[in-house]
Write the structure tokens for this entry.
Amino acid sequence: MFIDANNPSDRKLFQEAVNVAAQLYRDKRAGPAWQRYPDQPVKFITDVLRQHRGDTWRGWRIILKAAFAQPLEPDEVSFFSSVSGGRLPPTRRVKELWCIVGRRGGKDSTASVVAVEAARLVDTSKLRPGERPIVACLANTREQATIAWRYIKGYFDTNRSLEKWLDRPITGHTIELRNGVDIVVATNNFRAPRGYPVACAILDEVAFYRSEESATPDVETYRALRPGMLTIPNSMIIGISSPHKKSGLLFSKFEDHYGQDDNDTLVIKATTEQLNPVIETLYPGEIAKAFEEDPEFAAAEYGAEFRSDLADYVDRDVVRACTDHGVFERPWDEHNRPQYMAFADPSGGSRDSFTIAIAHAEGDLGILDCVREIRAPFQPEQATEELVTTLRSYRIGKVLGDRYAGAWPGEQFVKRGIIYEPTEMTKSDMYVNFLPLLNSRKARLIDHQRLFNQFCQLELRTIRGGRDTVDHPKGGMDDLANAATGALLQVIGDERAAVVRRYLLGR
């Protein structure tokens, strides 16, 4: 083809050809289209859900299309409105997606495919050489993390187009990709994300996060993730969980953003049947039966409703106000010798801790002096010997405790010269009786982080008949809180606590 440099139309064609060639060269250097257009992961995700999961995953495809600001069809807009509180679809890719979903609604399957494609689409242009960003899938428990890991690994094992992305064979719970991105699946730990650039964080079952190191592990994890996402364009936090009690990070996001036309945060609330329409075909009548047996439980498990029968046992500000900060232990004082009392929470040494607490009274205040915890695993007799040494240091010859393992704890203490009396009160009854004393600031606690966390994570449940029960959440612990409650109830001197004390002592 001959081009006349003096002809304006020829010069225009030539310049257009140069521009096209330059763009092709830039595209080749920039990488495949998925790298240049970070809003395209929804196509891969929705295609996978359609091809490998079937049309029953239509609900999840609509949600993800909306989250990535992809156009919705008219019938899709109607479904989106039904699970988003009537809000309009976002006009740009959201920074946070929170999905409150009933059980068996496909949460883990969706989280895994999002993790895989998010890792392939990371824009690393603003990172330092050698810096490896992560796509983190943080689960509530080790078992939950294993489920998510198997889903993610399965995509690479069965898809040849993904296999070529691997930088090295898959080992452990980390997948290293050739684009310098790592997919990490782990249990929730608010310290883990620190120091890493985070391209995408998937908080799996975030409403059930538990930690002995923090009273609010969900909030701490969220705060730890945010700074690591600043240097990665289009980074995203995705929280996918069944609902629980009306507190915590997930409930806060629901209250603040559900039904709100916010382009940064999208909150979805969908029942099991909305996202898994074949559940009734597979298990006919099971959900209806669950609602008949326990409406509150079923509404949370399948209806995506936060539980109204569950609440925090005590506000953390109350526990903080009852804590003498900087006082980690109060030594034995001969002036309090007749008043020192102790409570033990024994354990067999395989899972739970073996704890004791010591307290004394000052007027109408109960003063916690000391707590001791021996964490599992341990040898019960050696643990008893160690705790008896602490009791002797406070000149205590008698300890109350629960009825764990029948007569075994009493025998171990008696062998070492300490009388052990089991209480007739249940752990729940002790917590219920202790709550007014906490709220009225008549108990003084020592500065002990695990004790603080255990009190803050206790749950108050109203059962049928209006009776309140208190216990630690599933997967949590309360050994220190139980021992401290038992010790303080024995020594607090107001009239109500005196009745409790006489009841505990069997007088």
Residues 23-41, 494-499 have pLDDT under 50 and may be disordered. Residues 8-30 form the longest helix (23 residues). The two ends are 110 Å apart (CA to CA).
